[in-house]
Design a protein that fits this description.
Blueprint: H1 9-21, H2 34-49, H3 56-70, H4 76-92, H5 100-126, H6 133-144, H7 146-153, H8 155-168
C-alpha cells in the first residue's frame, strides 16, 4: 500500500472559500449562511477522504481566520468547523461509509446538528433570539446540492481509487 503525499489543495480551497464568504457579494440576508455551509460540506467530505491533509489544527486555524475576517466573536467559526469535522470523523469510522449516498446521509445529519449548535451559540452570544431562517436556508440548500459538492471535491475519485487499491492489494480475495 502506497503512502499518499501531503496535499495543500483542501486547505487552500477552504481558505479561498472563507475569503469568498466574507466578500461583499450583495446577497440577501437569508443567503448569508450558504457559503459557510458549503465550507462545512467540503470539510465533511475531505475529512473522510483525505484525513491526512486536513488535521484538526488546520481546521481550527481556518476558523480563526474566518473569525478575524468576519470581525465576529473569536471561536465561533472554529467551533462550527471542528464540529463538522468531528461528525465526519465519527461517520468515517465505519468502513462501510464510503460513497455518495452514505456520505450524503451523514452530512445531512451533521449539518442539522451543527446548524442547531450555531444557532444556540449565536443566540447565547447575542443574548437575543437569533434568526434561524438564514441558517436553515443555507444548510438546506447545501444539503440538497451535496452531490454536486461531493463531485467537485474529487471524493468520487478517492473512493474509487481506494476500492481499487483494496481489491488489488496482495492479501485481498477477489
Amino acid at each position: 500500500m502506497k503512502a499518499r503525499a501531503f496535499s495543500f489543495t483542501p486547505l487552500l480551497n477552504l481558505l479561498g472559500l472563507i475569503a469568498i464568504a466574507h466578500l461583499p457579494l450583495g446577497l440577501p440576508a437569508d443567503a448569508s449562511f450558504i457559503i459557510p455551509s458549503v465550507i462545512a460540506a467540503f470539510i465533511f467530505i475531505w475529512t473522510q477522504t483525505e484525513t491526512d491533509n486536513l488535521k484538526p489544527w488546520m481546521i481550527f486555524t481556518l476558523g480563526l481566520v474566518a473569525d478575524v475576517v468576519s470581525s465576529g466573536p473569536i471561536g465561533f467559526w472554529p467551533l462550527y468547523y471542528l464540529s463538522v469535522q468531528a461528525a465526519a470523523l465519527w461517520f468515517g469510522r465505519n468502513p462501510t461509509n464510503s460513497g455518495l449516498i452514505l456520505s450524503w446521509i451523514g452530512f445531512i445529519f451533521a449539518i442539522m446538528v451543527v446548524t442547531f449548535l450555531a444557532w444556540v451559540v449565536t443566540t447565547l452570544y447575542t443574548m437575543q433570539n437569533a434568526s434561524f431562517r438564514p441558517m436553515i436556508f443555507g444548510a438546506g440548500l447545501v444539503a440538497i446540492g451535496y452531490p454536486l459538492i461531493y463531485w467537485l471535491s474529487g471524493a468520487h475519485r478517492a473512493t474509487t481509487s481506494s476500492r481499487v487499491d483494496e481489491m488489488t492489494s496482495p492479501g485481498s480475495t477477489l
